[in-house]
Design goal:
mainly alpha; 14 helices; disordered C terminus
């Protein structure tokens, strides 16, 4: 059991580290965000279907049919979430976009009393206020925006966070469906929902399909989505819920470090304080959530 737990922790940590590099790769793909999101969804869906095939398993059609309404809505939200997040990477620093995106748990905390009838405790409310204060510091409203930080980019990041929060809330209504069935269906539906919009708004033949662009797209779709989701869901069964919640903060930490070291995008004093408030408040909120699953 201990060996299985250590393996699960290793898989989860590796998945979070890969997620943390996503913004760097997006920065170097000279394609519209809609096209990147569409390619990511298609490639990841195909990869996960291949994983299911190689494992000699199958997708439960009955489970998908039973949950189709919420799967469709969450799939559409995932597509919108990706587009807004990729736009945030273009209009602000990777670290600021990532931290804006990490406001999603705060949105869930504030919406959960109305959507899923969960009680809003004083601790969670204070966590939400703390995260909001952190977002104010990062935005530069009280001082001057940091280098590369724009309100447009922060807006895209917060929009992505709102859609991701809606996915988290919609998933609360899914019943008796496996993680793989849920993920494959959501990613596939996200691709289908985005496809007409992508074809209507973009001239795909006129885009710069250089070999490096194709390689980066394949990396984002297969590595950052397909493989990482496989590691993520493959490790969840062997981890305590609080352990997984804490390890998830490896993602923004890696993004912040790479943003500073690789792209030369330091947060600055106010930004660093804001990052501590956002990540600290979400950690405290996660610790206050009743754990489920195995000991990690």
């Amino acid at each position: 059991m201990k060996e299985e737990t250590m393996r699960a922790k290793g898989q989860f940590i590796f998945a979070m580290m890969i997620f943390g590099t996503l913004g760097i790769f997006i920065r170097y793909i000279p394609l519209p965000s809609t096209v990147i999101a569409e390619a990511r969804g298609i490639l990841a869906t195909l990869f996960l279907l291949l994983v299911v095939f190689l494992r000699h398993s199958s997708i439960s059609r009955e489970a998908v049919k039973r949950n189709f309404k919420f799967l469709f809505l969450s799939g559409a939200a995932i597509g919108a979430n990706w587009i807004l997040l990729f736009e945030a990477y273009r209009y602000t620093t990777v670290s600021t976009a990532t931290l804006s995106y990490y406001m999603a748990p705060v949105f869930v905390i504030l919406a959960s009393p109305f959507v899923v009838k969960e009680r809003l405790t004083a601790v969670k409310f204070l966590c939400a206020l703390s995260a909001f204060a952190g977002m104010v510091l990062i935005s530069g409203v009280l001082t001057e925006p940091g280098e590369g930080v724009t309100f447009k980019g922060i807006g895209f990041g917060l929009g992505a966070a709102a859609f991701y929060a809606s996915v988290m809330l919609l998933n609360q209504f899914l019943k008796d469906i496996s993680a793989y069935d849920m993920t494959i269906t959501q990613l596939g539906l996200a691709s289908l929902v985005l496809l007409p919009y992508t074809l209507f708004t973009e001239n795909l033949s006129a885009l710069p399909w250089a070999p490096m662009t194709v390689i980066l797209l394949l990396t984002v779709g297969i590595v950052h989505t397909g493989i990482t989701y496989t590691l993520y869901f493959g490790s969840m069964a062997g981890l305590h819920a609080q352990t997984a919640a804490l390890f998830s903060y490896i993602d923004p930490i890696v993004a912040i470090i790479l943003s500073a070291c690789w792209l030369g995008e330091p947060l600055g004093g106010a930004g660093l304080a804001g990052a501590i408030l956002i990540l600290g408040s979400t950690v405290v909120s996660s610790l206050g959530t009743r754990p489920e699953g195995r000991e990690g």
